[in-house]
Amino acid sequence: AMNLSIPFAKTGLPILIGTALLTLSSHGQPDPQWMAHDRERPLPPVVTPGQPGAQTPSSTAPSDAVVLFDGNNLSQWCSIDGSPTEWKLVDGAMECVKGSGYIRTLRNFGDCQLHIEWSAPVPPEGQGQGRGNSGVFFGGTRYEIQVLDCHENTTYADGSAGSIYGQYPPLVNAALPAGEWQTYDIIFTAPRFSDCGKLISPARMTALHNGVLVQHESELTGPTAWIGRAPYSAHPSKQPISLQDHGNPVRFRNIWVRELGPASKPEFTLPDALLDRYAGAYSFDHGGPVKVTRAPDGLLELSFSGFTM
Ligand code: MG
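# magnesium ion complex -> structure
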């Protein structure tokens, strides 16, 4: 087995050196000296968070935010295919129902600031990745920040709460015990692709867990994956935000998002079934037939002949 030592860990060198190293590594690739989910990799130091404000159920969104969940209903959310979700409303929170699948927002978001509060099930059951596992995904289901009960629960570093799954461990472990409300504040920058699908700039995330910085401008190598490092494949910047069903009844509340960048019209990913319903042949009194079909990318395509405007 490889015997890797932690640089400077025992030398007591000034903290400044550590900070400089941290800054360098946070802008580069995931540290190549560790394999994905390497059990030898040092775990994030445990930090006791201050008062992030999540214990107040009445915490409110900023005035310019899109509220994705305010405790009343799941109207902003659906299953990945657009059908109604089976996740349930419990005590002003929405709870993952095992086996019901991921949920996603109806609306699409590119660069954004997301606030979300979550709580791991009590009593804690299972261990490692099996305890209080869910996840917050950007870019549809591509880029995951891990949600996991990491209070006195050991797992691999790059699968910890606040990790960018399989790529970047959180800078520290700022987890609270199961049952307590925890906050994520995440700044996501969508990757950019050229017209021919070449990566121009990678996805980036900065994240605070319970008010403590856990990701600092981390550059994703591609979609997060359990095994391997998947390469990027081109997609529009704006995609739904999704939450993972990993089989554990994790709860979420107070979810809001602020779109970053120039103001633009809201975009939505409509249910497949709804789009299918629009497909068909239409005729009008003063024009020829109009045909609506589903394009290979899932969007609706209009074709008509003899149609006069
Ligand atoms: Mg997960």
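# post-check
The pocket of magnesium ion is lined by residues 133-135, 146-147, 244, 246 (CB under 6 Å).
The longest helix spans residues 15-26.
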